[in-house]
Design brief:
Layout: H1 6-20, E1 29-35, E2 41-44, E3 47-50, E4 55-63, E5 66-73, H2 84-93, E6 98-102, E7 107-111, E8 116-120, H3 126-137, H4 141-147, H5 161-175, E9 180-185, H6 191-204, E10 219-223, H7 226-234, E11 244-246, E12 258-262, H8 263-266, E13 286-289, H9 302-309, E14 314-319, H10 328-334, E15 339-341, H11 343-349, E16 355-361, H12 363-367, E17 397-399, H13 400-416, E18 422-426, H14 430-443, H15 445-448, E19 455-457, H16 463-474, E20 483-486, E21 499-504, H17 511-518, E22 533-537, H18 541-546, E23 557-563, E24 569-575, E25 610-612, E26 624-627, E27 634-637, H19 639-650, H20 654-662, H21 664-676, H22 681-688, H23 695-704, H24 711-721, H25 723-727, H26 731-747, H27 769-774, H28 779-793
Parallel strand pairs: 5-6, 9-14, 9-15, 10-12, 10-13, 11-12, 13-14, 16-22, 16-23, 17-25, 18-20, 18-21, 19-20, 21-22
Antiparallel strand pairs: 1-4, 2-3, 4-5, 6-7, 7-8, 23-24, 26-27
């Protein structure tokens, strides 16, 4: 009797048994063959390739919005419990408390609530399973009913699996009386959608903080910028219709239910008392604090007064950054997060775009800059004789040549890649953003003449015009603006899904801000060709932050580029995806306070700045970094040293490497391993200065200090010392083998690939590959001859 495969087992046994237990009787449902991740995007050869999605055989849904369990099915003849570990993994991902495995005949259940594994004769019914969950979590019937309130369903905005987890956890905590909660979700993972769904469910459930059901709750959505308030109000929260009200301009309304405000609009300042005091302390049932890490919970903040005034309200903080020293007050106020979804996890699941980091170094950033004796600036002021570094540029010293070099390099980069790729350039202050805009405009005159808004500055000084330009930049169908220069205005809250280049021309000291800036590019828009993006780093900020042990989302790939005074590239080196620079010359120390224009005009006054219009700026550097053996610390090494270290992790001796290299099949495996580690022989030979060396000799030389041998030396040694090998073939066949050695001498061991090697002159004059194979006695004999040729070619390495 033939056993059923997995698909037939599901169709003939598992699905009928689930139906018999009531899992297809409304409102309960079966969700079969469901994927819940998007598949990680990897950048291979400059193209994005999706990995596999996580797929579950069955989700058991108590209601359309509330899953209870995972069922993993295996073929009919599978051993008992063989799918349980897999099922448990899926359940943990989805925060579900029940996991089942079956082959259609036996059923194994794992209960996360009790830690027990049980053999069952039948699947539990929906009501029985939910009753166990309700009892374990201490939910009353009223709380359970509100928890199951339907979500708002829109085809284009269905919650992802981790968003469902946050929504359900937050609802349960609020319903059970937890007055302060914190959610930590990476930028671009949909905090606003989560906030909306929480509000929608509580609003429709007629929940209120005092437990009455006579009215719908009054909810306040707080943020620190109009952009962070207007966008959610007008888009995500639109289904609330007339229930919405924005508190601004000193106007107070108490007749609505969903309120929006910036801290600044309702806080106390020098000219007025706090507008928030016009609302009774118990007016709001729930306050959602978006980007709460930006200061709302600091002990000395005026914004903290608002939250304390509305102390009776339930308060939900939303942040993108895990606990760090610079946001410790936030965590002290709200408590530990009820759920964390990191940048790393978002990239791994395929919901966030990976990125490639380009480290571009000017000479003044690498070595610093010092004025000549008695040098004067643009306004005739003597420049203090100090040593100025990256952290000083555009704050104390404005070097026009540096700005021009950066603008020229960025323009050339976009010419090579995509001149219409949406790009945000983060500058030191508004003045620097203006200078950068002017430089980029002049370097792109051909496009600016036809599209006047190709390059624009967006800072607080642009006011409504700037917001209009930003709105156009955010729209995928709007071709311009393409490049926005800014200082700090666009670090948070800007949903620009088609942004493909994030450019750093100012030092980013805080990890919190760095993550927010990266978030400008992490959103996916595959329908517009946006599946990954570039971080172009002119200050070392990105590489310094990647070295921080608290960083949780390493880049897909990195490279280092050197540019000259004209912004032209003088060298480019790919870095391994896991290799990150730990130290950059001229970089600011982590945690060093930056001096700038605050939130584009609201911060401290910048110090006196000197303007240097002359001079030359050029580029130097060739740095690669790698994680140590423990995967914790980073050390700076050369590309050649990095390659040597990788080889020594794969092979203990040069003879072991040579033995595998001589076998064409094993050599392919070695090349594949090296390719995955970012090692390409063309770049390696250039970096080592040995373009004519055989790849094996180059690897052994770098890793084990073996003497180098050129490809020509290897070929001549083989011809001289292995005459018996050639003599066994006909004159024509010997000529073909000799030609293969010539091709190898010229281009390397890739020339031994069959049939490619047979399709180029002079070998191709002997006919097609089959006709050439006949000269050796057939395809098998020919392949054996070519393989033996390679074995002999590399046989001598172990004796040197």
């Amino acid at each position: 009797m033939v056993s059923l495969n997995e698909a037939d087992t599901c169709r003939l046994h598992v699905t009928p048994r689930l139906r018999a237990a009531g899992w297809e009787e409304p409102p309960h449902a079966l969700a079969e063959q469901q994927t819940y991740t998007a598949g990680r995007v990897r950048i291979i050869g400059g193209k994005a390739v999706r990995g596999e999605r996580k797929r579950v055989d069955y989700f058991l849904l108590y209601t359309r919005d509330y899953a209870l369990a995972v069922v993993e099915s295996k073929p009919e003849d599978a051993p008992v419990g063989s799918g349980l570990q897999q099922s448990k993994g899926y359940a943990e991902d989805r925060d579900l408390k029940f996991a089942f495995a079956t082959n259609g005949h036996w059923i194994i259940e794992f209960d996360f609530l009790t830690g027990t594994e049980t053999s069952l004769d039948a699947f539990p019914t929906p009501d029985a399973l939910f009753a166990r969950l309700q009892a374990a979590q201490g939910l009353s019937d009223a709380e359970a009913s509100r928890l199951l309130t339907p979500s708002h369903h829109a085809p284009e905005a269905q919650p992802r699996y981790y968003q469902e987890i946050v929504i359900n956890r937050a609802l349960r905590e609020i319903l059970q009386g937890r007055r302060r909660c914190l959610v930590c979700m990476a930028t671009g993972t949909g905090k606003t959608l989560v906030a909306f769904q929480i509000c929608w469910k509580l609003w429709n459930a007629r929940w209120s903080r005092d437990g009455t059901r006579e009215r719908k709750p009054r909810i306040l959505f707080l943020a620190d910028r109009n952009l962070l308030v207007d966008d959610p109000k007008d888009k995500h929260f639109a289904p609330f219709g007339e229930a919405r009200w924005k508190i601004e301009g000193g106007r107070v309304s108490k007749s609505r239910e969903i309120y929006f405000a910036t801290y600044q609009a309702i806080a106390e300042d020098k000219s007025r008392p706090g507008l928030y005091r016009q609302y009774p302390p118990d007016f709001f049932d729930l306050i959602i604090v978006d980007e709460c890490h930006r200061g709302s919970a600091r002990d000395q903040s005026q914004w903290r007064e608002i939250l304390e005034w509305f102390e009776p309200a339930y308060q939900l903080g939303m942040t993108a950054t895990p606990l760090r020293e610079d946001n410790r007050d936030t965590y002290a106020y709200f408590g530990n997060p009820i759920y964390t979804y990191s940048l790393r996890q978002g990239i791994e699941d395929g919901f966030l775009a990976p990125y490639r980091v380009h480290r571009v170094v000017t000479d003044v950033d690498a070595t610093g800059w010092r004025p000549s004796r008695d040098e004067l600036d643009r306004f005739g002021r003597p420049i203090p004789d100090e040593h100025y570094e990256t952290k000083d540029f555009e704050r104390i010293i404005a070097l026009k040549a540096r700005t021009q070099a950066v603008a020229r390099h960025l323009t050339d980069f976009m010419r090579r890649t995509d001149r219409w790729a949406k790009t945000i350039v983060f500058c030191v202050d508004q003045e620097h953003a203006l200078a950068m805009r002017q430089a980029l405009t002049n370097l792109n005159q051909d496009l600016v003449a036809k599209h006047p808004h190709y390059v624009e500055r967006v800072t607080s000084r642009e006011g409504d015009r700037g917001r209009a330009l930003l709105s156009r930049f955010q729209e995928p169908d709007e071709p311009t603006p393409v490049i926005l220069t800014t200082s700090q205005m666009l670090t948070t809250g800007v949903d620009a899904p088609t942004c493909k280049n994030v450019v750093l021309v100012r030092v980013i000291n805080a990890m919190t801000e760095f993550k927010q800036i990266i978030g400008r590019g992490t959103r996916m828009r595959e329908d517009y060709g946006k599946t990954w993006f570039n971080i172009i780093d002119y200050t070392g900020s990105a590489t310094a932050r990647f070295a921080d042990p608290d960083f949780d989302g390493f880049p897909e790939a990195m490279d280092l580029t050197e540019i000259d005074a004209q912004g032209r590239e003088t060298g480019s080196h790919d870095l391994d995806p896991i290799a990150i620079e730990a130290v950059e010359p001229g970089g600011a120390a982590p945690g060093e306070p930056g001096i700038g224009d605050g939130a584009d005009g609201t911060g401290p006054t910048p110090p006196l700045k000197y303007y240097v219009d002359g001079g030359q700026v050029q580029i130097i550097a060739h740095v690669v970094s790698e994680l140590d053996d423990d995967g914790n610390q980073l050390r700076v090494i050369q590309y050649t040293d990095y390659t040597a270290a990788q080889i020594r992790t794969l092979f203990r001796t040069p003879d072991a490497l040579a033995a595998d290299w001589a076998d064409p099949v094993k050599r392919e495996a070695i090349l594949d391993q090296l390719n995955r580690r970012g090692i390409a022989f063309s770049r390696l030979a250039e970096a080592a200065g040995h373009a004519d060396a055989d790849p094996l000799d180059l690897l052994c030389h770098l890793a084990f200090q073996r003497p180098l041998r050129t490809r020509r030396e290897r070929a001549e040694h083989l011809r001289k010392n292995q005459p018996d090998f050639f003599d066994q073939f006909s004159a024509v066949a010997r000529g073909i083998l000799d030609a293969l050695l010539d091709q190898y001498t010229e281009h390397g061991p890739d020339e031994f690939r069959i049939p490619h090697a047979l399709q180029v002159p002079p070998i191709a004059v002997h006919g097609n590959p089959m006709e050439i194979a006949d000269l050796f006695g057939g395809p098998v004999a020919m392949r054996q001859a070519v393989n033996r040729l390679q074995t002999l070619l590399y046989a001598e390495i172990g004796n040197r």
